[in-house]
User: Which sequence fits this backbone?
């Protein structure tokens, strides 16, 4: 790469919601922005989370000048432990973001991370980069955008933002700084596209206060509010409303308890005296004096709200008359989980409010008019929409055209694309990755397409295990065959079918050959037999032992 070019490489966060991670590279020096997670898609059976493919960064770990975090949401810091395990670069974040990230690292037993606290208006000189921070409003306090001065020109990264004129924490997006960046001359703007489908302006977070006020006023029983564990602004709204109606609030859900503790210690969450109590005390209060804020707004199977909806959460048992507020919109792919949870809550007799019934959620992302305003303030030569599914990126690109950006100066990237930019030219020159890494339990990246396909087959048609022992010298059966089946048929009602399967195994052995040849024959014959008999295609596992 020539010295007069800078490379912009999104490893996540484009063409998808989540796992935001971007690399800025000049010569052989790298700057990493965020490292987030994504919820698994419906067909990713058994997968816990999805993280970016960090191979490009890990292979250049000694060239990473810094890891910079824009804010503390999971889709921006959740993959940090998997990055820091391999890359020991210094990390820079605002105070709240650092506190939430350190909780995340401690959960993964990472204790040697080098953190530096920054504030909006701070400037970092990390040659060849010079990074300025500016405050942005979002659904979590302490969010920042970045202005990255490179030898080629200025790159502005918006972070997640909206232009909230009355945010809960009272801190506006820094319009003056954005305008100043525009006057200085911005080479590239990378801007949040999450709400590019939504016309107009995103309502203020304070709009929620009126809805919460009405719900708390009318509720005759307990009020349970589910939201993202890192949505500190929303939790503050719950606490303030509970105080007005003389309710005590318990926080439940491990991640939310940790985040609330950190936010309160750092002064970003202000709990009125006596409002925050433990869940045991809330359970002793009259229902009209009790409230709970919890995790589970996305229907996560192990979250507090989901377990409450299934009556498997011993700390809080839902009863008719309780009011449940799901204060979030579904992340794409989570709709089925959320709908199942809502149905279970209704079955328990709860009064349930969610975004399609009442305005119980306000987005933290800019809508179309704000997106156009961002572009107009920063006035970039080149524009790259980020943080959104592919349709969001395309719609954001169309908005950029409306405010005067030339179509040939707009680049819609996919994960792993390399955009090379010089003062006079920008073009996509290749790819460094086409993969995403699946995390399943303690396994990172060991579940791929083949394993997922096996899981899909198992989920649809089950499996058959055929076990037989043969004499090594004569090849005759000395034990078995035994047929073991799960998810294929109900064994007590399929005796004839299983008897036919055993007979086929005996025939396969009688045809002769070693254990491998017999095993292959058993697999082929049983697969064909299962389809011919009941039109199912189970996974067939032959176990042939020579004794």
Assistant:
């Amino acid at each position: 790469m020539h010295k007069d070019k800078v490379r912009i490489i999104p490893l996540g966060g484009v063409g998808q919601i989540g796992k935001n991670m971007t690399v800025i590279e000049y010569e052989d020096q790298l700057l990493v922005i965020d490292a987030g997670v994504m919820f698994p898609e419906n067909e990713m059976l058994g997968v816990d989370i999805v993280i970016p493919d960090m191979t490009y960064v890990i292979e250049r770990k000694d060239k990473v000048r810094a890891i910079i975090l824009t804010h503390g949401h999971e889709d921006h810091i959740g993959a940090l432990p998997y990055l820091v395990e391999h890359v020991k670069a210094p990390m820079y974040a605002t105070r709240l973001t650092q506190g939430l990230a350190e909780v995340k690292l401690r959960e993964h037993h990472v204790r040697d991370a080098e953190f530096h606290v920054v504030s909006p208006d701070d400037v970092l000189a990390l040659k060849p980069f010079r990074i300025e921070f500016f405050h942005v409003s979002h659904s979590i306090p302490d969010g920042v955008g970045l202005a990255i001065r490179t030898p080629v020109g200025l790159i502005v990264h918006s972070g997640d933002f909206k232009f909230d004129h009355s945010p809960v924490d009272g801190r506006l997006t820094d319009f003056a700084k954005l305008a100043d960046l525009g006057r200085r001359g911005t080479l590239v703007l990378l801007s949040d596209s999450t709400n590019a489908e939504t016309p107009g302006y995103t309502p203020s977070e304070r709009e929620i206060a009126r809805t919460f006020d009405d719900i708390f006023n009318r509720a005759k029983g307990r009020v349970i509010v589910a939201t993202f564990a890192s949505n500190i602004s929303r939790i503050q709204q719950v606490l303030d409303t509970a105080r007005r109606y003389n309710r005590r609030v318990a926080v439940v859900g491990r991640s939310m308890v940790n985040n609330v503790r950190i936010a309160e210690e750092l002064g970003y969450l202000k709990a009125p005296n006596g409002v925050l109590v433990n869940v045991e005390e809330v359970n002793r209060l009259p229902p009209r004096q009790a409230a709970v804020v919890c995790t589970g707004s996305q229907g996560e199977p192990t979250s507090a709200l989901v377990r409450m909806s299934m009556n498997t959460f011993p700390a809080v048992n839902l009863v008719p008359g309780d009011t449940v507020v799901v204060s979030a919109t579904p992340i794409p792919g989570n709709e089925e989980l959320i709908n199942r949870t809502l149905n279970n809550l209704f079955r328990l007799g709860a009064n349930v409010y969610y975004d399609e019934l009442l305005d119980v959620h306000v987005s933290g992302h800019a809508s179309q008019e704000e997106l156009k305003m961002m572009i107009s303030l920063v006035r970039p030569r080149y524009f790259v929409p980020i943080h959104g599914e592919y349709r969001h990126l395309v719609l954001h690109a169309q908005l950029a055209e409306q405010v005067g950006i030339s179509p040939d100066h707009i680049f819609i990237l996919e994960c792993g694309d390399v955009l090379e930019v010089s003062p006079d030219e920008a073009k996509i020159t290749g790819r460094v990755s086409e993969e995403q890494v699946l995390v399943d339990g303690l396994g990172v990246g060991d579940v791929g397409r083949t394993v997922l396909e096996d899981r899909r087959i198992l989920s649809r048609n089950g499996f058959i295990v055929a076990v037989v022992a043969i004499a090594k010298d004569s090849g005759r059966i000395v034990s078995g065959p035994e047929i073991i089946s799960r998810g294929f048929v109900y064994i007590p009602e399929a005796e004839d079918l299983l008897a036919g399967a055993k007979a086929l195994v005996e025939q396969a052995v009688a045809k002769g050959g070693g254990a491998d040849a017999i095993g292959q024959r058993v697999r082929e014959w049983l697969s064909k037999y299962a389809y011919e008999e009941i039109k199912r295609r189970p996974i067939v596992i032959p176990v042939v032992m020579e004794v």
Summary: The radius of gyration is 28 Å. The mean pLDDT is 89.
